[in-house]
Amino acid sequence: MTFVPSAIAVKDAVARALREDLGDAGDITTAACIPADAESKVVIAARAPGVIVGIDLAREAFAQIDARVRCGVGKEDGAKVAKGDVVLHIEGPSRGILTAERVALNFLCQLSGVATATAALVDAVKGTGVQIACTRKTTPGLRAFEKHAVLCGGGRNHRFGLYDAILIKDNHIAAAGGIAKALKEAQASAGHLVKIEIEVDSLAGLEEALAAGAEAVLLDNFAIADLKKAVMLTKGRAVLEASGNVSPGTVRAIAETGVDLISSGWITHSAPALDLGLDFR
Fold this sequence. Notes:
Layout: H1 7-22, H2 28-33, E1 39-46, E2 50-51, H3 55-65, E3 70-73, E4 80-81, E5 86-93, H4 94-124, E6 131-133, H5 143-152, E7 166-168, H6 170-176, H7 179-189, E8 196-200, H8 203-211, E9 216-220, H9 224-234, E10 239-243, H10 251-255, E11 261-263, H11 266-269, E12 276-280
Parallel strand pairs: 6-11, 7-8, 8-9, 9-10, 10-11
Antiparallel strand pairs: 1-5, 1-12, 2-4, 3-5
Helix pairs in contact: 1-3, 1-4, 3-4, 4-5, 8-9
């Protein structure tokens, strides 16, 4: 794992989530029902197996609501859990615990779901040497955290945004006037540290991209037979990334074609949240 969101990013994300939940009036339910001096001991526990991510965000949620709430870590980010495993031990003012509960769980459930989905794909391609990567299809405002969750699930990070790599997609090609023209323009303008990848949707497109000097090619929605042909045609001249129709049921067959990388938007935009809950003890 090489990327962990900064403490500043954690504080900011939590503050925005709490502001959204509390509005201007605060937690009127807890204030109405719970005495100000009440104290509680609770745990956040897994209700299904998976990979845990979001511990720092959950702890920060409780800390921002009430610094007197104490959190003992049962599992660190990247840890595999079974049903019933305790992720956090929490104690302190009951009002603070109840007010921060949903925001803490939202972060934990969402990010743990991403890590768990990633791990499912990584496990499915074991032994093939193929890497699983994420995409920019992330939840607005949570990209850094979802990228971290992918790493915790054993995957790799694709580009973080439009700013750190050039990925020439079908609409760029259409607007630029063709594969070779788009690639030539990108090669002429990119700095020496900027990676260039181009997307193609056919074997003919792949041949054109290779002839134009492509070093990385995204094979978009290729059939399995065409992925195999693409690998044979390329002969190691470029990194090949397969994308489209990637799921736990299809990913092994895609990996066995010999591509270098498989990217999946599903692991971030459609991963089921991991079921976690806060229980009073």
